[in-house]
# Entry
Amino acid sequence: MTINQSIQKNVEDYISSFLSDQFGSNPQSVIAVFRAPFLVIHLLDFHNPSEQLLLKRNETKRVAETRDILLGGVKPELLQGLAAITGSNVQELYADWNLEKGSGMFIAVLDAEADQAILESPPEVDTSALKEKVISISKITEKEPDFIAFYWLNDDTVLVERKGIMVEIEKELIKNGVIEELRLAKRVVEHRIMEFVELEPILNQGINELFVDWNFEEDKAYMVFRLIPKAE
# Structure
């Protein structure tokens, strides 16, 4: 077992226990991918009974907002636990939920030297075309990013970093403290747009799920594509 694999296994065990303690429910499965400086944690089948009841009543926004609030309250403990496992401080933590599928994702950005291999895209992927597609998404929901980068964490996980994407009205809302409402609204819009943007032919692979979250204060966002594994 490599060092990265050991870290991934320890993170998976820790997250399962942490969510059980803090949220009253643990996922059916936790899949961690660690390629410095990024750690992404995919949660599968993660719902507690009260959330399931709210979702049956179409209270999706309420569930998402409650999760965000709960996560904000336990964030310091979570960051401390991940830092202890990885041996690096966690500089930023992002989260998103796919409530229909019962899944979710944490994206941790570590204070660690980057693994340069994650910058190398698969030879069958037209990176320029992929960049143009992601830019088109940003133009619809925000503005063209000042900076964009792609990180290939493994065969099935692509992370996209965008900086300089906020428009002026969003910046004013952030100044006025309208942050959670903005996050909830932008999640819906960006997920909806993804349904109409044809990325799969460019990636040469099907997309299983999309997760996205923002750091509004620093005007940046991370997006993760979970790809459908290719047949052997």
In short: The beta strands are 29-35, 38-44, 90-98, 103-110, 147-154, 157-163, 207-215, 220-227. The radius of gyration is 17 Å. Helices lie at 3-23, 49-56, 60-86, 127-141, 168-175, 180-194, 200-203.
